[in-house]
Design a protein that fits this description.
GO terms for molecular function: proton transmembrane transporter activity. The chain is mostly helical and about 55 residues long. The chain contains two helices and no strands.
Length: about 55
C-alpha cells in the first residue's frame, strides 16, 4: 500500500468484494438445490423474501 490514509476506502472495498463473493456462493448453492428439487428452492426464496428486506 502506498499510504495508510484511505483506510476506510480499503475496508469498504474489501467488504464489497466479500459481499460479491458471498452472493456468488449463495447463487451456486441455490442452483445446486434447484437440481435436487424445485419446491425447496421456492420455499427458500419465499423465506428470504419474507425475512430479508429485499
Amino acid at each position: 500500500m502506498p499510504q495508510m490514509a484511505p483506510m476506510s476506502w480499503l475496508t469498504l472495498f474489501i467488504l464489497f468484494t466479500m459481499l460479491f463473493l458471498l452472493t456468488i456462493i449463495l447463487n451456486f448453492f441455490f442452483l445446486k438445490n434447484n437440481s435436487i428439487n424445485n419446491k425447496t428452492l421456492f420455499k427458500n426464496k419465499a423465506y428470504l423474501n419474507k425475512y430479508w428486506k429485499w
